[in-house]
């Protein structure tokens, strides 16, 4: 079981700012990127169960998805885009336990 955050959308117009003598570089993007948190689990024998995708907001919006590519995942929202005890327990009872 693991969680990962990923940026929504694709940034096609960006500038990389860096200095040859420094170890870090900055990526300047014109977009306001939103993040989604995904919690996933894979059993020892390789079976995957439906992950949960947690968006920041009050209710999931249809505009967040393209009609052709909506995976069969569990979707929810939270005020800050992070998981909570309620979200974790709901996913555990509604998805994890029935599918394991």
Entry summary:
With 100 residues, the chain is α+β, with helices and mostly antiparallel strands. Helices cover 15% and strands 30% of the residues. The protein has one domain.
What can you tell me about this protein's structure?
By secondary structure, the chain is an alpha+beta fold. It has one domain (2-99). The chain is built from 1 helix and 6 strands; from the N terminus they run E-E-E-E-E-E-H. It has a 4-stranded mixed sheet, covered by helices on one side. A two-stranded antiparallel ribbon has the order 2-3. A hairpin with a 6-residue loop joins strand 2 and strand 3. It is extended. It starts with a strand and ends with a helix.
Features:
100 residues, alpha+beta, two-stranded antiparallel sheet, 6 strands
Write the layout of secondary structure elements.
Layout: E1 2-7, E2 15-18, E3 25-28, E4 35-40, E5 52-56, E6 74-78, H1 85-99
Parallel strand pairs: 5-6
Antiparallel strand pairs: 1-4, 2-3, 4-5
Pfam family, one: DDE_1
GO molecular function, one term: nucleic acid binding
InterPro entries: DDE_SF_endonuclease_dom
- Mean residue pLDDT: 78
Work out the count of structural domains: 1
* Strand arrangement across the biggest beta sheet: 1-4-5-6
Using only CA atoms, what is the Rg? 17 Å
End-to-end separation:
13 Å
Q: Structural class from helices and strands?
A: alpha+beta
Helix content: 10-25%
User: What kind of oligomer do you see?
Assistant: single chain
Give the CA-based shape: extended
* Helical run tally: 1
